[in-house]
Design brief:
This protein is of the alpha/beta class and 112 residues long. It has five helices and three strands.
Length: 112
């Protein structure tokens, strides 16, 4: 996740709920490695990240029989219709505008 503000929001929400293990990876290869290792119930992507290439990572997850069942959620600028469409095309499970993601974060982490 490139956006420090959203990283902090996620960490703060998880801490207030308790009992949630979070992992933030810095490279696409580490994301897939960590997902294979931990088998999380949810993987959250910043779809506007330039460094992480989230669309490629999501596509690789959804093409892998061992990872396809792991739920994916992406947040994105609400005006970025091209990225939203591309994320849906590679198989993301849910896309939210950045503002909706921030507003629903507690519920998202609780149901993960």
């Amino acid at each position: 996740m490139d956006d420090l503000m959203f990283s902090i929001k996620i960490q703060t929400a998880a801490k207030s709920i308790g009992g949630i293990d979070l992992f933030f990876e810095r490279t696409p290869d580490m994301v897939l490695s960590r997902i294979r290792e931990k088998q999380p119930s949810l993987v959250i992507f910043d779809l506007n990240s330039k460094r992480m290439n989230p669309l490629r990572v999501i596509g690789q997850m959804k093409a892998d029989p061992d990872l396809v069942g792991i739920r994916t959620l992406g947040f994105v600028s609400h005006v970025d219709a091209e990225t939203i469409a591309a994320a849906r095309a590679v198989g993301i499970d849910q896309v939210l505008a950045r503002s909706a993601f921030a507003a629903q974060l507690g519920d998202i982490l609780t149901t993960a």
